[in-house]
Amino acid sequence: MKGTVLISGGGTGGHIMPGIALYEEFKSRGYNPILLVGTDDVKFSSLNTVENLQTYNAPTMWKNIFNLPTFAIRFIVALTWTMRFITKNNVVAVIGMGGYVSAPSLVAALLKKIPVYLCEQNVVPGMVTSFFAKRAKAIFTTFEATTTYLDIEIAHSIIHAGNPLRKHVLKQVEKEAALKRFNMMHCKKVILVIGGSQGALKLNELMYDMLTQFPESFTDTGIIWSTGTYSYEQFKEKLQNVTHRASIFLAPYILDVENSYAACDIAISRAGAGVLMELAAWGIPSLLIPYPYAAKDHQKKNALEFVKAGAAELVENSEATAKNVAPLLFDLLDNETLLARMSAKAKSLARINAAQDIVNFIAKDCELKK
Fold first, then answer.
1. CB distance 160 to 141 below 8 Å
2. Where do the domains of the chain lie, and which CATH numbers do they carry?
């Protein structure tokens, strides 16, 4: 069947980045993919690489019941637009990446009897996956544990494929070249601080407090620090006014993230599925501080899978103070044997061929033609 594959998702980088990865894989094989995201999602600079990108005003599901009529009207408008878009572009398959942005396109596909596929990034399925799971031809999961949260009746359609990763993330980089890129050739150890696609104020404050409270401990240590756009100027100014012994590379967002992964020895991170599976692909030990307000506490459940595997240590957000985290961080950095073991365990969780495997399945299932 010749036609377009519509990849739909948005709201957070956790939904968008794997969508970009699938787009890249379909495109590289000569198929015709389109990535559909919300209008607000254009803030993600990674979308600049997507040639066939479409945005639209997707309705947000308000919790306040008095807004339900407004939501219903906006959803109908979005659904009508999506159905026309699907017809105009000869869409033959729709892949839902999660987030409210994907819901109208999935409903439209089902109404038009077009095959629907879902990608679930987190251990605990999101609202979109839970609602559409029984109607999907396949649900591709990142974690095996996700199966326990879905109806046993659809077990046959659940495929543990992993989380699709963008091609440049997997690009092999020599550690020496990566250290040179960040001017850290002299550093004995390098720490990566990464709070997800939009940064994390808590991690920024934690790293700053550790630098100021334990300055001597960071001698000959490099810190590659992704603050997020909103906190960058604040922490750039704060660091100019303190004395510390570390070599710091501070950026709102690291586009060449493969270099940061190649350079670092450990990561301090939130526990979104996207960054976790990138860390796994590179075999990077991690100290995880899950975002406590994530839906269904999914970040903590993601983190626990890495902890159980021996790939990470977990610190609760409420306990993530410099006094508590610094000793744990330094103990890990001083234990080469433990770091090597954690690295191997992290790699065991990786599914670096997730994008290829998912595209293989869908192309065969839909009998896609180039």
1. yes
2. 4-165+352-366 (3.40.50.2000), 171-348 (3.40.50.2000)
Q: What is the DSSP string of 214-236?
A: SGGGGTTEEEEEE--TTTHHHHH
Pairing of strands 91-98, 189-194: unpaired
CA distance 197 to 212: 26
Strand-pair partners of 54:
36
State the Rg of the chain over Cα: 21
> Which residue is associated with the tokens 């999935």?
106
Q: pLDDT tens across 73-89, in order?
A: 888 999 999 999 999 99
Backbone angles phi, psi at 115, to 5 degrees: -60, 140
What is the model's pLDDT at position 64?
Answer: 46
Residue 48, classified by CB atoms within 10 Å of its CB into exposed (0-12), middle (13-18) or buried (19+), is: exposed
Residues 233-273: tens digit of each pLDDT: 999 999 988 777 789 999 998 989 999 999 999 999 999 99
Cα–Cα distance for residue pair 170/261, rounded to 1 Å: 10
Res 1: pLDDT: 65
Residue entry with tokens 């550790």: 210
Torsions phi, psi for 244 (to 5 deg): -145, 165
Structure tokens at 300: 């903590």
Angle between helices 322-333 and 336-348 (to 10 degrees): 90
| The residue to which tokens 């699907």 are assigned | 86
Of all residues in the chain, what percent carry a pLDDT higher than 90? Answer: 80
Q: How far is CA 33 from CA 21, 56, 84, 85, 269, in A?
A: 11, 17, 17, 13, 32
CA 343 to chain centre: 19
State whether residue 336 is helix, strand or coil: helix
